[in-house]
Amino acid sequence: MKYALTIAYDGTKFEGMQIQNNEVTVQAKIEEALKIIFRTPLRIAIAGRTDAGVHATGQVISFKSPGEITNIDRFINSIHALAGPDISVMNFHSVPNNFHARFDCIAREYEYLIYCGRKNPIFLENKVWHLYEELDLISLHEEVQQLTGENDYKAFCKKSNENTVRYIEYIKIDKIYEPFLNLPLYSIKIRGNAFLHNMVRIIVGTIVDRAKNKLMYSFKEILESKDRTKAGRTAPPEGLYFRKAYYPDIPELRNSGLNLLENYPVFGSSYYKDLMKNNIRLENIHK
Q1: Can you give the C-alpha Rg of the chain in angstroms?
Q2: HSE on the CB side for 201, CA within 13 Å?
Q3: Quick one: how far is CA 111 from the chain centroid?
C-alpha cells in the first residue's frame, strides 16, 4: 500500500528536512516513527528539501506501507507521539502504488515573511526575518517579475554543478498582519517547478538589498549575468516556509486530497507527469 502525508514542522530544532548522518532532521524523526509503528525500516520520499531552520506547513512525503492503514486517526496520533512535538500531520492521503512525492511533484510554493520595525515581535521568534529599518518592498513587485518564466538562475543559488535552469510562475509581494500583536509583515510568495539550493532565500535577500539601494543592478541584469556576486545576500532561514506541493490534475490522483494543477508546465519525467503531458497533447489535438 502507498500513502502520502501532508506535514507541517517547526524547522528551528532541525538540521533540515533530508536525512543526514548524526543530525536531527525531519526525515529521520518520521522514519524512526514509521519503523516503530510498522516494526520494519521504511524510507520516505520528500516533495522538497528544506535547510536547517526552514519551516513547512504543506510539505508532502510518501512511503510504501507493509500493510493497509485502517485506523487513520490512530496512525496520525502515533506519528505525533513518536515524531513530535515539532512535527504535525496535516492530511493523510491514499495514493496509487507508483506515486512518488518528489518525482511526481510539478510545482512547489514557498512563502517568506519579513517584519520591518522597531517593535519586538515576541510571538514570532525564529518565525520571521526581523529588519529594524522601514523598507518599501511592495514598490519592487513589478520589477521582480523580471525573474519569472523559464530562466537560468545561476546568479541566485549557491555554487552548484547541477543544471541551473528552472521555471518560476509567479513572485508576489504583499503586506499582511500577524494575529497576535497585529504587526505588519511582508509576505513574498514564490511558486515554480523546483528550486536550487538557497534560491528562494537569495531572491528574497536580493529584494531586500534592492530596497536598501545596496545593489546597482536590476533583477534582469543580475539574472542575465549568471554571477552570484551581483545578487544580494542570502536571507536567513527562519522566515522561509514550504507552503504547498502540487501534482498533476489527472483522474488517477483526483481522489487523493493532494493539491493538483491542470495545464501547468511539466518539466522532467515521471509516471504521472508523463500522463499529464499526454493528456495535454491529446487536448491540443482535439481543439
Answers
A1: 20
A2: 23
A3: 8
Place of cell 502520502: 4
How is residue 6 annotated by DSSP? Answer: E
Q: Compute the distance between CA of residue 124 and CA of residue 225 in angstroms, rounded to an integer.
A: 36
- Fold topology of 2-95: Alpha-Beta Plaits (3.30.70)
Reduce the DSSP state of residue 209 to 3 states and report it: helix
168: left (phi over 0), alpha (psi -120 to 50) or beta: beta
Surface-to-core class of residue 70, CB atoms within 10 Å of its CB (0-12 exposed, 13-18 middle, 19+ buried) = exposed
Residues whose CB falls within 8 Å of the CB of residue 118, separated by 6 or more in sequence, listed in order: 132
Q: Which fold has domain 107-241?
A: Alpha-Beta Plaits (3.30.70)
The answer to pTM > 0.85 is yes
Nearest partner of 104 among 170, 18, 45, 151, judged by Cα: 45
Q: What is the mean pLDDT of residues 199-206?
A: 98
Own/partner contacts of 13-20, CB < 8 Å, gap of 24 or more, are: 13/86, 14/52, 14/53, 14/86, 15/52, 16/49, 16/50, 16/51, 16/52, 16/54, 17/46, 17/48, 17/49, 17/50, 17/54, 17/56, 17/59, 18/46, 18/49
Choice among 51, 86, 209, 274 that is catalytic: 51
Catalytic annotation present for 51: yes
74-95 pLDDT per residue, tens: 999 999 999 989 999 999 999 9
Ranges for all domains in the chain classified under CATH 3.30.70.580 = 2-95
Task: Give the span between the Cα atoms of 68 and 207, in whole angstroms.
Answer: 48
Phi and psi at residue 143, to the nearest 5° = -65, -35
